[in-house]
Prior knowledge:
Structural class: alpha+beta
Order of helices and strands: HEEEHEEHH
CATH superfamily of the largest domain: K homology (KH) domain
Mean pLDDT: 94
Distance between the termini: 50 Å
Largest sheet: 3 strands, antiparallel
CATH architecture of the largest domain: 2-Layer Sandwich
Helix content: 25-40%
Strand content: 15-25%
Amino acid sequence: MTAQAISKAVERVRHLLDSRPQAGIHADEPAVARWQEDLRVICSHANGTQIATDLPAQLGGTGDQATPGWLMRAALASCLAARSAMEAAAEGIALARLEVTAASTSDARGLFGMTTGAGEPITAAPCEVRLTVQISAPGVPAGRLQGIVDESYRCSPVAVALVSVVPIAVHVDVDAS
Length: 177
């Protein structure tokens, strides 16, 4: 899709949501994760897309697939990249380059429910997440490109979910076997 087509699509959706705000509320497509064997899990989308995950060999996995934590970073980076491309197109800016890297630092002890020497729980979440955005567009001032990224980060659903700590409800169905 061209930048012009993206811009028109964005404008159509914004117009629809301005006139009918309730149209913006929808159930998101669920991700279904099915354990296969060992630590391998297959995540499926209703459209047939499947992504396998596994853990590194030192944690008992095979290490030949992406980890769930990597998928979180990939979701964060790709969401910001897509939102930035959408914002640039809406502003009539033709990007020459857009690359988002999501890196993090984690403490594996959190995965095992371990505590510090003082007895404090260690989080299983990353200790920090860093986003690096490389962006360019011929003739567009750096400040404007920075503004596009800033606005896109503010409106990136994945980033907002991670920053605002969206509550998660867990419901367990146990098969009576």
